[in-house]
Amino acid sequence: MRGIILKVYFDNAATTKVHPQVFEKMIPFLNEEYGNPSSIHSFGRKVRVAIEEARETAAEFINADPSEIYFVSNGTEANNFPILGIAKTVFSESTKNEIITSTVEHASVLESFEELSKLGFSVKIIDVTNDCVVDQKILQSQISSETSLVSLIHVNNETGAVNNIEKFSEFIRDKDIYLHTDAVQSFGKIDLDVKKMGIDSLSASAHKLHGPKGIGLVYAKAGTPLSPMILGGSQERNRRGGTEFTAGIIGFAEAIQTAKKEMEENFDKVNRLKNYFINGIEQSSLQNYSINCKESPFPFILSLTFNSDYYKNDSEAMLMFLDINGIAASNGAACTSGTLKPSHVIMNMGKSKEDASGTIRFSFSANNTIKEIDYTIEKLELMTKKFRK
Ligand SMILES: Cc1ncc(COP(=O)(O)O)c(C=O)c1O
Questions:
Q1: What confidence tens digit (pLDDT) does each residue in 223-264 have?
Q2: Separation of 210 CA from ligand 1 center, angstroms?
Q3: What 3-state class would DSSP assign to 125?
Q4: Which residues are catalytically annotated?
Q5: Do 136 and 96 share a domain, yes or no?
Q6: Which residues touch 350 (CB under 8 Å, ≥6 apart)?
Q7: Residue 38 sits in the same domain as residue 160
């Protein structure tokens, strides 16, 4: 393949290509179906019906009731809203003010906790174990009679590590503590049943599952105390005012429908791709690297760290090298990758800043191919020669 530059997109945890069926379904709602869903005339009513059908699709997908689904603008808001909304409401009703999360959460969770800390909440942030996940005993040891909310990521966006949310909920359930999970990476890729998981709220974002950007959702179990996120409108049952992104909601529902149909097949395909990638790396000339959270059962993310004792790690230069060769990868969370800071997730897993600066995340979709992996490994071999100390 020497000399030929392939275009390889291995940044599907940052965002995915819109599914053609999603695009088709959205077009009428950017065009002739322009009614405001809050209007009482036929233009509006038609759009309202479509939105409520989309809500049913989303609810059914995770075994929830449509009244438990709130459409919001993205995964970031889908974390901000329940974390702030639950913590503040519980505090106003009971004065419980202790909230718990982990060190490897997405910034939208960590910064919600920071905000609550400024408001006087007592924040506990727990470490993950060597398996990259939260340990049940550590979590249990942190919980007290003052704990109102625990928020833990389901599938980590940088490592693919999977927290056993169902297990955590078992001992949280009878303690009057709310459990939120950031399911932005897992939603649409693996089966989610909110009842089985025993959670009170969950976040998801359409653009991670071949839907449009700018639309997310919150599941909040009936009865969950949840103050509004956006004031000034009665939309989303008074909890999230503002005229809905109609085409986005319709696109999200279609992305869910296609994900549902293709989930098993996509998972198996991506699993084969990830295993092929790992085998390929192991048989290549690459040395002095580690695969982070290698045992994770989630195949969509592969995180590689180059050992800084051997390499002049510089994530920006490494990603540029790959980009020049047509390969799109990431150094971690896409939302912060513009700044290319060493990842807090990788460092909180015990790696040095220098190692974190040599960490590259490859994230897959069912659109990727074996040929792309062969090509990428070839380029990684060249990259490591260039960056060797
Ligand atoms: C785990 C996780 N949570 C939240 C978000 C934020 O989602 P959005 O980009 O839709 O705001 C992301 C985005 O990368 C994510 O990976």
A1: 999 999 899 999 999 999 999 999 999 999 999 999 999 999
A2: 14
A3: strand
A4: 335
A5: yes
A6: 130
A7: yes
